[in-house]
Inverse folding.
């Protein structure tokens, strides 16, 4: 759901301008699953085929924790 950044009014699907103040609404990012379904950036699973989506930030966090573990194991005697 899109909310007007100027006045906070909730917009309906397909609105390009705010119904309350007339400000142009920013479009919400939409991605496409491998099955062709449109999904939102914060979706964890596809609503059509059930595919799980991986958060790119999680990969970065995991690699950082692996590096810390390697550094800790190198420093032990």
């Amino acid at each position: 759901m899109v909310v007007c950044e100027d006045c906070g009014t909730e917009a309906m699907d397909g609105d390009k301008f705010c119904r309350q103040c007339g400000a142009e609404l920013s479009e919400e990012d939409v991605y496409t699953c491998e099955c062709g379904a449109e999904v939102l950036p914060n979706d964890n699973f596809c609503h059509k085929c059930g595919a799980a989506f991986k958060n790119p930030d999680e990969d970065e966090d995991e690699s950082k924790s692996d590096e810390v573990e390697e550094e800790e194991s190198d420093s032990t005697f």
About this structure: Helices lie at 56-75. The two ends are 55 Å apart (CA to CA). DSSP finds one helix and two strands in the chain. The mean pLDDT is 78.
